What does this fold into?
Amino acid sequence: MTLEQLANQLQRADDWTDVAVEWGVRLGAALLALYIGIQVSKWLARAVSRALTRAHVEPTAQQFLSRVTYVLILMVFVLAILQICLKVEPTSLFALLGAAGLAIGLAMKDSLSNVASGVMLVTLKPFRVGDIVDIGGKSGRVESVSIFQTKLRGADNQTIVLPNSLITTAPIINLTPDTVRRIELIIGIGYNDSIEAARAAVLAIMHADKRIHAEPAPDVVVYELADSAVKLGIRCHVSNTDHFSTKCDLNERIKAAFDRDGISIPYPQRDVRMYHHVAADQGVKVVVTKPD
It folds into this structure.
């Protein structure tokens, strides 16, 4: 029914009560049908999720496809309600959808880009639900990938919500795919300290830690002869779940071992030498400082 037909019906009606009752019944039926549509959409979305689980589809795709199913089924119900309950003619409905689609597309171009990015994330699979990622400087465990956004759970238990379009344009570092990760520490020692003594102390610590894998073997190499320190690169491999705790323990134990063995960990410093000159003709003392 078009707006013109509705206006003609109101003009021909002798008693507006009949029109009000008729449209009240239609609106009530439409609301009831909408409620049923929402429940059916939820049920079908859950059914799709269970079917994907039985098919061993990864959780990321399960969440995304179940949400897409919910939205599509609900849209079908809305279109059916407009046509059956409210008597909206198909031609008018299509014209309305075309105009609404154009307006929504212009107003929600950023949201539509999020939808397209969500499809790319599910298709390309740079990460999965449960992976620990670093996206544009935000780190956390992936909780869900929806149509418009992705949720991460940060280390401090905060919820991080990222638009999908931002994720596809930002660098993504996935820390989970491999079960083994490398720990790399850069610690400086003084130029007067023995590199071999420092290497032996650090290797003893790493060989004694059962969390550190024997292969690839841990090693200690000289990274750089810096301005105020000899920088040692301390490298070893551990299981993904032990990465953070092992790294913290190594820092603490290496500091304690260096203190015990008299190996210094220098900090940036500059030596300043002072030269005293006395002018012979005026007897004025001039102090000149020259940094090394």
Summary: The two ends are 91 Å apart (CA to CA). The longest strand covers residues 180-189. Residues 16-54 form the longest helix (39 residues).
